[in-house]
Write the structure tokens for this entry.
Amino acid sequence: MSELKRPALHPNDVPEVRSTGYPEPFRARVRERAKRRLGDACGLTRFGVNLVTLGPGSQSALRHWHTLEDEFVYVLSGQVVLVTDAGEQTLSPGACAGYPAGSRDAHHFVNRSDKPATYLEIGSRIEGDLAFYPDDDIMWCNDGNGEYAAHKDGRRYT
Amino acid sequence: MSELKRPALHPNDVPEVRSTGYPEPFRARVRERAKRRLGDACGLTRFGVNLVTLGPGSQSALRHWHTLEDEFVYVLSGQVVLVTDAGEQTLSPGACAGYPAGSRDAHHFVNRSDKPATYLEIGSRIEGDLAFYPDDDIMWCNDGNGEYAAHKDGRRYT
């Protein structure tokens, strides 16, 4: 533990989580993605701030875009490849990217290097936000009993 | 200019601004504060992300708190002193702090070192937000013709 007192903290004081809501086969793509939820740890509710460590070969997420959530990423260490509709570009420490809500240019990071990369990701929290995945056969459905992942023809992932 | 293409960018591609709405004598306290508005440059509207360079002796802002704005800061280089109601603590690169909207524990950074410090600051954008300054004789007023700075007895700063 660091000696910092709230409202300050050191990321090492915050647990690392590896959870994902993706079903297989997508889950494997983010297996080496670990997040420290810094904003939550500080009691913030209007946006999230995560310190993410992305291992070699891992993706930040499936390539996606949000209807209502603004997103921003800032690379701290290592190298990540940003994939968007326009193609690929490599981001080094100090580079950043922003994805306005409603922009249909889907995006994600892939770590194609042999070392971990770290970055900050910030996302607004707005009720009713939806995420779409143009490259993959997955969508989120809700029948009134909670959200679940489905194929794009409606069959539930099991 | 970097070779990055939107939605990515390098902070060096974004102009550095030194503006402040503070009147004197407060303006002098933030004279060595320069911001690159990364979130705006990416077209984000739900929150702001600024890369701030704070020169020796400078403050990030008057010590303040917000009614509706969540704030988060992440130190990238150098050292800053975080001042809150509980006192002072020094934050080094990798340390962060979060200030939930409505928490009356006013905060700011002071650079007491002899080198510049850099940090990211993120703030939600919510209409109707107010900021208060417990240590200083300043408040914001609006008579219907725009916001202006006043002493706490109501006299306008000129």
Summary: The CA atoms of residues 64 and 134 of chain B lie 7 Å apart. Helices of chain B lie at 38-41. The mean pLDDT of chain B is 97.
